[in-house]
Amino acid sequence: MAASDSNNPQDEARLTAMIQRWAEGKATLRDVRGYTDDELYAIAKTAYIFFYQGRIAEARTLFQGLYAVNPADAYFAKALGVVEMAAGNPQGALAAYDVALKLDARDAQAYVGRAEVRLSLGQKAQALEDLRRIPALVDADEPLAHKAEAMVTALTQR
């Protein structure tokens, strides 16, 4: 990210206009600060490594920050859902998955993740609803399809 020249009136005016757009909900903090996808995904990679090292608090902090900087990226919301669940916050995980699915309604992984959270909250009917969406979203031979099918079978057996 290039730093602006604070003595340049044009840079200051551009920054002021961008901050106003952010305040109005018409721009993200990513837009204001000029972060690139490469920069944000490098941070996400670090968060992912922290998660798999069991450093849940650090991963959570990074994914919360990434979501705050770029709330339009469904991946950051979905990753936050995973980390919130691992941190023992199923309500936070559910909210994050809800956002991820509002941003990308065809994300099969987000539906399965949300179904797992819903099951942990005792919301079996809603979990089944999410799981039953999977066949329309992924090929039948994909591992995620097999997982969803197995979950539906287990949940519907008497």
From TrEMBL:
* InterPro entries, A to Z: T3SS_Ca_resp_chp_LcrH/SycD, TPR-like_helical_dom_sf
Query: One Pfam annotation, family name?
Result: TPR_16
SUPFAM superfamilies in UniProt = TPR-like
| NCBIfam families assigned | LcrH_SycD (TIGR02552)
Full protein name:
Tetratricopeptide repeat protein
Q: Which organism is it from?
A: Archangium gephyra
